[in-house]
From TrEMBL:
PANTHER family noted in UniProt: ARGININE EXPORTER PROTEIN ARGO, ARGININE EXPORTER PROTEIN ARGO-RELATED
InterPro entries, per the entry: LeuE-type (IPR001123)
Compartments where located: Cell membrane
Transmembrane helix among keywords: yes
Membrane-related topology note: Multi-pass membrane protein
Molecular-function GO terms, alphabetical: amino acid transmembrane transporter activity
The entry's keywords: Cell membrane, Membrane, Transmembrane, Transmembrane helix
Transmembrane segments: 32-60, 72-91, 97-114, 134-155, 167-188
Keyword Cytoplasm applies: no
Protein name: Lysine exporter protein LysE/YggA
GO CC annotation, single: plasma membrane
Length: 214
């Protein structure tokens, strides 16, 4: 093969390789975007864990809710690992497990609603015993049936597409989304109208007491 033709052939091969690399990176970014959108819609929708985080944030404030929200986040990430490692398939073979999880989740939500209803923010800040705990958030997340279904649906959708986005990358993205989603729900509760009104009334009562008007 003449040198000119050989050089031209190598140049075309190099161009083809570069085009393949660009296409591969484009597919990875498309998969990443699709995964984030699916997680936002499916995992970010209202459920027992997200609603409880919002309610706790509204009732107890941001600082006193961090332990509970952290427990929910860690518990949901544990569910993610259970689903991703195939343990979910073993759990699914136990038909009585799903109703038990639903009952446990509903029972704790009712208990949490009672605590929120009987412990206003001012009392919650004065008494740490009434604050939701890390363990409570973790147990609610682990017993939340919606978490298993949503995470399994997102992982199944991500696995069905072709591309090079591996399992570790998917898990890292979904774990980051779990943190972001629950943080946003917590902030939504913290800045809800009820929470703002409660903080305003608390500040007014403190100001009045200092002025000895109340």
């Amino acid at each position: 093969m003449p040198p000119v033709i050989a050089f031209s052939h190598r140049g075309k091969m190099r161009e083809a390789e570069m085009a393949g690399e660009v296409l591969s990176h484009t597919q990875q970014w498309q998969q990443l975007l699709a995964l984030v959108l699916a997680a936002t819609v499916v995992m970010g929708s209202p459920g027992p864990a997200t609603i409880s985080v919002t309610a706790v944030g509204a009732a107890f404030g941001l600082r006193d809710s961090l332990r509970y929200a952290s427990g929910v986040i860690v518990g949901t990430i544990a569910v993610l690992l259970v689903v991703a490692t195939g343990i979910m398939a073993v759990l699914a073979s136990m038909p009585r497990l799903a109703p038990l999880l639903a009952i446990a989740s509903a029972a704790y939500i009712l208990y949490l609603a009672y605590k929120i209803g009987t412990a206003p923010p001012l009392a919650a800040r004065e008494s740490g015993a009434d604050r939701p705990t890390f363990l409570g958030g973790f147990l609610l997340a682990v017993a939340n049936p919606k978490a298993y279904v949503a995470i399994a649906a997102v992982l199944a959708g991500a696995s069905s597409g072709a591309g090079d986005l591996g399992i570790p990358a998917r898990l890292a993205v979904l774990a980051s989304m779990i943190v972001a989603i629950h943080a946003l729900w917590l902030l939504a509760g913290r800045h809800s109208p009820a929470s703002c009104a409660s903080r305003w009334l608390r500040g007014s009562s403190i100001w009045c007491s200092r002025q000895r008007w109340c």
